[in-house]
Amino acid sequence: MPSATKFRVAFFLVAGLIAVLVVTLPFAIQSLIDDLSRSVEGAIYPFVGTSESGRAQNSLHISIVNLDESRLTATLRVSGHRVCPSPCESGSRVILFSLGTEEGATAGMPPSANIDLTNAKSAVTESIDLPIRGHPTLYPFDVYDLWLGVGLAELGADQSVRPLSREEASGLLAITFQELLPREHMVPPRQQDAFSVQEEDEPIQLQGLHLLRFSRPLYEQVLAVLLVLLVAAAAAYAVFMRPLHDLVINSGGLVLGVWGIRSILAAGTASRTLVDLSLSLVILFLLSAITFRAVQFLYQRSNFRPSPEP
């Protein structure tokens, strides 16, 4: 009877794993179909608006093209131009801030990058790196936040810089934003109150502040959890259900197989191809089939149906 009890406990554990597989897999497949059917290019959102005026107009488009989890930085590609209805007397400097990070809590202004638009350079395309907040160790449930603030200053002919207040900068700046990350999903930018995060004595007033949040798609989260659970179950089958001499001989292949799951689920921003996804599904099918066979074996050994008494 003690032996049957052990098999029964193992049966319910494996049956619970199969239940998790059956419940979560349809959601993962739907998420995968949605991700494959849409373009990598995300929607375009208005970031900072502008109004009609007779003064110089500065227009920028910000695309986030890379997210480095190891360095906790985001790479932004900024393209912009400046249009003057009459000869421009001065230039403009757009300052992009990353707020809400640990660096932002130190003395001085938060980390920033400058984009200059002048008579000599009225059109620009530049790449900048800004710090973000997040916990890469929580993959695939890691979430990254970028509190992106925007300031505006006037560049004089003598290269002097005069920060503009919100009233002075009204109608001078228009910014749109787009997410271009292949393995991240971004929720629509949420506008924040710039007054609540800025000290009164700071030299540059924020013209706008938005929270940008990035997370993994649902199918990546489900795939990672299922593969880890299934390969752990497969390792348990090998340890507890095979003779010792077979386990010793095949231990190297078992270790390589378990470690190989990491290469499938490794975090990063590289795009997943149809080949990657197909091979992942094949491995998922193989491990699931082994699990189904194991639950049948455990059911037979559990003696749920006691033999009839003579």
Plain-language structure description:
There is one protein chain. With 310 residues, the protein is of the alpha+beta class. 38% of the residues lie in helices and 29% in strands. The strands form 2 sheets. Strands 4, 5, 7, 8, 9, 11, 12 and 13 form an 8-stranded antiparallel β-sheet that branches. A 5-stranded mixed β-sheet has the order 1-10-2-3-6, with no helix packed on it. The longest helix is centred in the first third of the chain and has 36 residues, at 2-37. It is elongated and about 90 Å long.
The secondary-structure element order is HEEEEEEEEEHEEEHEHHHH
Instruction: Let me know the number of strands.
Output: 13
Shape: elongated
C-alpha Rg (nearest Å)? 28 Å
Percent in helix: 25-40%
What structural category arises from helix and sheet content?
alpha+beta
* % residues in beta strands: 25-35%
Number of helices: 7
Measure the end-to-end span: 19 Å
What can be said about the biggest beta sheet? 8 strands, antiparallel
Total separate domains: 2
Unreliably modeled segments: none
Mean pLDDT: 78
